[in-house]
């Protein structure tokens, strides 16, 4: 998985690195757990913006009781019934199915 620094994400989004860190703090973007917000999956950025529907999906998973690590693992776990990973499904604009699965996975 390719990762980007906050500065690289800031360049892609046209904002400051501080704004990227704020997006992470606000739960609208996610860094690789344990990286201290230093590594952000490149898949979370698409066409100069945060991946559409990612902020809402992160909220659904967090509200469903997922830890940061569990959320990250869930987003990048292969799911043959999708097919691919939930992140890839979001990138392919199949957010409804991904959100439904996230709600069903909540505990």
Bin the strand percentage.
5-15%
Q: In which order are the strands of the major sheet placed?
A: 1-2
Q: How much is the average pLDDT?
A: 94
Oligomerization category of the chains in this entry: single chain
The Cα radius of gyration reads: 13 Å
Low-confidence stretches: none
Biggest β-sheet: count, sense, barrel? 2 strands, antiparallel
**Tally of contiguous helical segments:** 6
The geometry reads as globular
Question: How many DSSP E strands?
Answer: 4
Element-level helix/strand string = EHHEEEHHHH
Structural class: mainly alpha
Task: Report on this structure.
The chain has one domain. Helix 1 crosses helix 2. It contains six helices and four strands; from the N terminus they run E-H-H-E-E-E-H-H-H-H. The longest helix has 11 residues. It is mainly alpha-helical and 107 residues long. It has a two-stranded antiparallel sheet with strand order 1-2.
Keyword list:
107 residues; mainly alpha; two-stranded antiparallel ribbon; 6 helices; globular
In brief, what are we looking at here?
The chain contains six helices and four strands; from the N terminus they run βααβββαααα. With 107 residues, the chain is mostly helical. Strands 1-2 form a two-stranded antiparallel sheet. The chain has a two-stranded antiparallel sheet with strand order 3-4.
């Amino acid at each position: 998985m390719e990762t980007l620094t906050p500065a690289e994400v800031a360049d892609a989004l046209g904002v400051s690195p501080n704004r990227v860190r704020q997006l992470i703090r606000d739960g609208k973007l996610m860094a690789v757990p344990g990286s201290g917000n230093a590594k952000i999956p490149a898949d979370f950025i698409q066409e100069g913006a945060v991946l559409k529907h990612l902020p809402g999906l992160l909220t659904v998973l967090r509200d469903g009781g997922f830890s940061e690590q569990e959320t990250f693992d869930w987003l990048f776990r292969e799911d043959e019934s999708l097919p691919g990973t939930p992140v890839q499904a979001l990138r392919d604009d199949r957010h409804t199915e991904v959100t439904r699965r996230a709600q069903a996975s909540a505990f």
